[in-house]
Amino acid sequence: MSERPRPLGDAIRSVDPARALLQTDLIAALNRREIHGLNTVARLASERDRRAATAWIQFSARSHVIAIAPLLIDGTLARVSGKQGKPDAAGAAASLSRIEPLIAALELVLGDELHPAGLESEVDRDAVLIRLDASTPAGEMRNRLLIAVPVGLQLAPLELPRILPAAIAGLKLRWTARLAGPSISARRLDTLGVGDLVLLGIGPHVARLTLPGRNDHPRVRIDPTERVLILQENLEHNDTGIAHGGEPAPLHSGSAGIADIRVQTIIEIVGASMTATELATLSQGSVLPLPPNNGTIAVRVIAGDTAIGGGELVAIGQGFGVLMTTILQNREG
Fold it and tell me: How far apart are CA 80 and CA 89, in angstroms?
């Protein structure tokens, strides 16, 4: 191989920490709340969500301007724009009273009053964009809002979700993420040593997340180019049968010897500790913290449910891999 592996910190940019913190805290503050008899789900809005917003109601606070685009109100499409797609001031004004409970909840999160200040067809693309859904206890979708807030906004202290017993709110727990690595022959696994590379290809990669106290394994996007893990849509309703980050490699048929059988590897990342409060409010778009490790991302390499060693993620050309730093001689899991 012509290119030498480089530490990730030397090869890639970092995600803006202020943006990541605001994005995660805002989702946590609005997710899994009971507001006016409705249950909320907050998540990072997609580009498709942005395109669906034809009008943004501007709200002024003490030091910032917040924008809200109603998409669904009382179970029907919000009428905030005219036939030509231009913002409709009368329709926007009529919608305000119907989403007042959600606006009031946002005021509590911001620790400030919001005053309508105008109507625009676009919103700043640098703003943090959150989608807030509100449904009945039976699961019927009633309201959907897009909320755009500027980076640098300060939120009020987060209150505990009512579903979370206060006694365990400060308990520190640790998550793990597993992604499927390459299938490697048993013969090659036996000779793997310190300094060897396990190639992962070009990112980002999708892994399965294990959260303490939860039986589902939602997806997390591991993007080495940003050095962050971002929680994706919770897939507990999909029975994929892949609980820990990879499908088993198919067994070879015919006369191949056992040393030539390819074994699926799994790359495991042990995350930073989080409080029960933080875990309870995770949703799509939440940015999970990685433990500090001198600018690298430490991983464990597993093959056939057995830990074979440890390493760190490195950049290799346009792709990524694991540089082995330790090998377990007894190969115990």
Answer: 7
Question: What three-state secondary structure class fits 226?
Answer: coil
Beta strands in 224-318 (DSSP E): 228-231, 262-275, 287-288, 298-303, 306-316
Query: CB-side exposure of 241: number of CA atoms within 13 Å?
Result: 2
Q: How far apart are CA 41 and CA 285, in angstroms?
A: 12
Could you list the pLDDT tens digit for every one of the 333 residues in the chain? 456 666 655 555 556 888 888 999 999 899 988 898 999 999 999 999 999 998 999 999 887 899 999 999 999 998 887 776 778 888 888 888 899 999 999 998 988 899 999 898 899 989 999 999 999 999 999 999 999 999 988 888 766 555 555 556 667 788 889 988 888 888 888 888 899 989 888 767 888 888 877 777 888 887 666 667 888 865 343 333 333 444 444 444 444 566 678 888 999 988 878 887 787 778 888 888 777 666 678 899 999 888 999 998 887 877 788 999 999 875 544
Greatest CA separation found in the chain?
76
Q: Is the pTM of this model over 0.70?
A: no
Burial class (CB in 10 A: 0-12, 13-18, 19+), 89: middle
Q: Which two tokens stand for residue 109?
A: 């999160």
CA-CA distance, 322 to 299, in Å (whole number)? Answer: 8
CA atoms of 29 and 282, how far apart (whole Å): 10
- Do the Cβ atoms of 303 and 264 come closer than 8 Å? yes
Strand (E) or helix (H) holding 46: none
Cβ neighbors of 326 (< 8 A, separation 6 or more) are 194, 309, 310, 311
d(CA 267, CA 181): 6
| Contacting residues for 220 by C-beta, under 8 A, at least 6 apart | 177, 206, 207, 208, 209, 229, 230, 231, 232, 288
